[in-house]
Amino acid sequence: MEKVAVVTGSSSGIGFETSLALAREGYFTYATMRDVKKADKIQKIADEESLSLKVIELDVDNEESAENAINTIIQEKGRIDVLVNNAGWGIWGTGEDVSVEEFKEQFETNFFSVVRMIQKVAPTMRNQGSGNIVNISSVAGRIGLPASTAYVSSKFAVEGLSESLRYELGQFGVNVIIIEPGVIKTNFFDSMKTAKKADEGGVYRDITIKVITGVKMMAEMGTSPKEVAQVIIKSLKEEKPLPRYIVGNDAAMFMESKKMKTDIEFENYMKKELYSE
Ligand SMILES: NC(=O)c1ccc[n+]([C@@H]2O[C@H](COP(=O)([O-])OP(=O)(O)OC[C@H]3O[C@@H](n4cnc5c(N)ncnc54)[C@H](OP(=O)(O)O)[C@@H]3O)[C@@H](O)[C@H]2O)c1
């Protein structure tokens, strides 16, 4: 039976590579994107390799768009085996500088859209008695970081959602898998917004600049998004996928360090990593 995968945010980076990787594994893949004018590159590769990949429009922030996309897929294929919740973006700024409105915008895409998409596919997967929901979190979903506080908070929320859903959906044969990449070389950092108040300067100016500079330097040497795609494929091949998969040496190092150190030791270690005190 032909397996069906749906990926959000397939126009670039991790979503782009994951859509292609799933199609190469034999999934009929819906590579969804909010702006289908960006489809040319992925469509060209799919055509050249004769992959079963179809681009459809999906803005994860938009209820109607999400409803239409999932309805189309169910009408066309009658099943969904994999949903990859990948669409996301970030905002620079401290907890005081990011306004509540900006926090809400960040959570709209990175958290509420994940809830939205899961609620739309879960009934189909439960009825099938099988399915895999892959949530792209981040190493920033496990460790706090200054000056990207809203982003970090949104990814921590994804972690809590995913861990809880594992109990709820697991009993129906539906797996929930968390992917935690470190710094990945994609458009992500170029697309990051900056909180309005942080842009205006103020008491957090220094820490914000230090973090942005440090992270952008790390991004130069970031892991390829192809590696994230391969870890996702590997997780889907496991009979019983693990709750979470870390991607990248940087992420592995941070997570190992967090495991070995007390909270205070880890905080001091991170201060040295991010900026010299
Ligand atoms: N890069 C990293 O270092 C890193 C590390 C850990 C986790 N992640 C996570 O990985 C995921 C993918 O990011 P990336 O690194 O691949 O960055 P990217 O190249 O900037 O890709 C982000 C994708 O999300 C899409 N998107 C944003 N808002 C959307 C919306 N409302 N509806 C539909 N699509 C939307 C973008 O579409 P447009 O082209 O239309 O903007 C783009 O396709 C994100 O969830 C991010 O938080 C990234």
Structural notes for this entry:
There is one protein chain. The chain has one domain: 3-Layer(aba) Sandwich (Rossmann fold), CATH 3.40.50.720. The protein is built from 11 helices and 9 strands. Helix 1 crosses helix 9, helix 3 packs parallel to helix 4 and helix 4 runs parallel beside helix 5. Helix content is 53%, strand content 15%. Helix 1 links the parallel strand 1 and strand 2. With 277 residues, it is α/β, with parallel strands linked by helices. The strands form 2 sheets. A 7-stranded parallel beta sheet has the order 3-2-1-4-6-7-9, with helices on both faces. It has a two-stranded parallel ribbon with strand order 5-8. Bound molecules: NADP nicotinamide-adenine-dinucleotide phosphate.
Shape field: globular
Low-confidence stretches: none
Which molecules are bound in this entry?
A: NADP nicotinamide-adenine-dinucleotide phosphate
CATH fold node name: Rossmann fold
The structure class reads alpha/beta
Beta-strand percentage range: 5-15%
Number of strands: 9
Look at the structure and give the mean pLDDT.
Answer: 97
The neighbouring-strand order within the major sheet is 3-2-1-4-6-7-9
